Amino acid sequence: MTKTTAIILAGGQGTRMKSPLPKVLHPVSGQPMIVRILSQCLKAEIEEIRLVVGHGNNLVKSVVEPLGVATYVQEKQLGTGDAVKSAQVDSIEGDVIILNGDHPLITAEDIKGFLTDFRERKLDLAVVSVELDNAKEFGRIVRQGNQLKAIVEAKDASAETLKIKEVNTGMYVVKAALLKKFLPQIKNNNSKGEFYLTDLISIALDNKCAVDAIVTKNKHVSHGVNNQVELAEATKYVYMQKCQQLMAEGVIILDPNSTYIEETVVVGAGSVIYPNVFIRGKTAVGPFCVIEPNAFISEAILQDGVQIKAGTYIESAVIKSQAKLGPYARIRPDTTIGEQAQIGNFVELKKVNFGKKSKAGHLTYLGDAEIGEDVNIGCGTITCNYAADRKKYKTVIKDRVFVGSDSQLVAPVEVGHDAIIASGTTVTKNVPDGALAIGRAKQENKEGYAKKFTPAKKD
Ligand code: UD1
Ligand code: CA
After folding, report:
1. What is the mean pLDDT of the chain?
2. Are 3 and 47 a contacting pair, CB within 8 Å?
3. Fewer Cβ close by (within 10 Å): the C or N end of the chain?
4. Which residue from 34, 52, 100 has its CB within 8 A of the most atoms of ligand 1, so it is best to mutate?
């Protein structure tokens, strides 16, 4: 098998993005554009990847190097031809696929398809082209009869050439030997004074190489991101693709236009997702869950039949079967919510193991806590986990405990099985199994006293 090397061009400045972030690091559905392209190359089993970086190269390197991708610095951005040269083509053998770092919608299937086509047709050089109704700034594919003749950049094209609808997607497949031989012949005598990679087509044709276009119908490959509008369009496309995939698998999505689920997420059949829901990262949602509007769920596991009510925020947590959360609950990292447990409005949990069938219905903060099964946490309960020594301490509440409303538990503290905490108690000492803990000032009723404070009525 012929070896394949991908050269990805990502050296350009991305001026039209008007953003301090290098263009290829802008995220599309939660993933930097360049990472998307690299992972599709890896999925397509490309043996070697050479990424050409330039503008903001240190930042780009810090993102791609952990993925094991080699970077090649293009010192000055002298054009796409020069960018390919920077990838040190002399040390490449076999076939080369050249991709644009700003075309984030390419898939492994597209890449494999182009390579197969190139090999079956025994070409030396192929440009991937597509027909577009609005050819915008794309380079035009100029043909004589059926024969490909050249690629002409929009800026250098005549009015007649600009009418051509077949355009250069900016992707090519080429034999390494051809690159080595003809790349040095590219000149910069054009309107931008740049070395255009597109000139390789006419040079190779003049030298009787087998050159043609691979015409693709997959318009997404031609979606280049040059500004924020095109970035948003790419993002929209990826979210829509994901919704369509999930709907095909039996997930009920009320409005795919306003549902934002990253590709890494899995959702079980029969789950219902309301509008304006964001689901991120490696989140797994089981079957028959209901996720109401404005929920934000990141890196979480939701088992079967979980109900997430409106406005709930969940990060790095496990929610077990048939638990109910929200509206307006906040579940912070390292939290596990037990089966059939209920977390109500304005309840915040952090690093909590919350037991099966336990309830915290309203206005509560639980942090660094171990809560048993069938526990009732009354409204306004607070675990005081952060002490004056600036350290965190743990609260343990055993099975079937009843914590009355407006109680504080000053950690470290432990409440035994079946104990009751009277409303308004500040628990500072451990509570034995089955005990009642009550710690509040004794109430005194002063008969007739209210009158003293009530202004006399005039009548
Ligand atoms: C290029 C093509 C055009 C094609 C279009 C598809 C040329 C001359 N033109 O135009 O025919 O229709 O892509 O999107 O090739 N880059 C570098 N170093 C440089 C210049 C560019 O690494 O010196 C990188 C950019 O980061 C980008 C890619 O090459 O990822 C394409 O460059 P860009 O300037 O966006 O080319 P276009 O004008 O879009
Ligand atoms: Ca471009």
Report:
1. 96
2. yes
3. C
4. 100
Contact predicate 204/213, CB 8 Å: no
Q: Does ligand 1 lie within 6 Å of residue 378's CB atom? A: no
Alpha helices in 80-227 (DSSP H): 80-86, 108-120, 159-162, 176-182, 199-206
Q: Are 58 and 71 in contact (CB under 8 A)?
A: no
Distance CA 184, CA 293 (A): 57
**Minimum-distance ligand to the CA of 151?**
1
Per-residue pLDDT, averaged over 250-275, amounts to 98
Kindly state if the Cβ of 352 falls inside 6 Å of ligand 1.
no
Q: Looking up tokens 């990472």, which residue turns up?
A: 35
Q: What is the whole-number distance in angstroms between the Cα of residue 230 and the centre of ligand 1?
A: 15
Whether the per-residue pLDDT at 56 is higher than 90: the answer is no
Averaged pLDDT, 144-154: 94
Average pLDDT, integer, range 338-364: 98
Closest ligand 1 atom, residue 139 Cα: 11
Ligand 1 near 168 CB (within 6 A): yes
* DSSP one-letter string for 44-86: TT-SEEEEEEBTBHHHHHHHHGGGT-EEEE-SS---HHHHHHH
Mean pLDDT across the stretch 119-140? 96
Q: What's the rounded mean pLDDT across residues 22-33?
A: 96
pLDDT at 459 over 80: no
Q: What is the dihedral sign for C-alpha 364, 295, 231, 267? A: positive
Instruction: Show the CA angle centred on residue 274, arms to residues 271 and 279, nearest 5°.
Output: 75
Q: State the DSSP string of 196-208.
A: -TTHHHHHHHHTT
Q: Which ligand is nearest to the CA of 196?
A: 1
pLDDT (mean) for 79-94: 97
* Distance between Cα 364 and ligand 2 center (Å): 51
Cα–Cα distance between 106 and 308 in angstroms, integer? Answer: 34
Q: Does domain 4-222 have CATH number 3.30.750.24?
A: no
**Ligand 1 touching residue 349 (CB < 6 A):** no
Q: How far is the CA of 146 from the centre of ligand 2 (A)?
A: 26
Q: What is the largest CA-CA distance in the chain?
A: 112
State the number of CA atoms in the 13 A half-sphere of 104 facing the CB: 25
pLDDT by residue (tens digit) across 391-421?
999 999 999 999 999 999 999 999 999 999 9
Cα of 123 vs centre of ligand 1, distance in Å, is: 23
**Looking at the domain that runs over 228-437, which CATH code has it been given?**
2.160.10.10
| Ligand index nearest the alpha carbon of residue 197 | 1
Protein residue with least CA distance to atom 2, ligand 1: 170
The C-alpha atoms of residue 43 and residue 84 are separated, in whole angstroms, by 23
The ranges assigned to domains in the chain are 4-222, 228-437
